[in-house]
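Pasting as-is:
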Amino acid sequence: MDGWMDGWLFVSGLCRCPSAGGFMFKQWKEKYLVLTMEGSLLVCRDAESPPDQVVALQSNCESIAEGREILDLPRLPPGGRRDCCFALILPQNKFLLLLSDNPDDCMRSSWLHARTPTVNN
């Protein structure tokens, strides 16, 4: 799958559930992500699979938060570190959590910022 940038990250979904008084968290799964030239983030099972999820960053991403800014960060997978995590804040109280293997890769989250000029950072 061709894109502006691509690679493997751990991904999880998180949804704020006011009626339950907290968050509903999905398990961390390693996914293949592709950032297109048009500014969409494709979340795929592997490099050959069609996307399971598509996030149009310019229209559907309200902001990007780094791990240290996420107060209610769910338990990370073994070896996961807060400074390697960041979240895409989406509409309707939804979040897409992304976790890299090391802080240097997380710093590359700047490629997300590069494709989201309308996002409030």
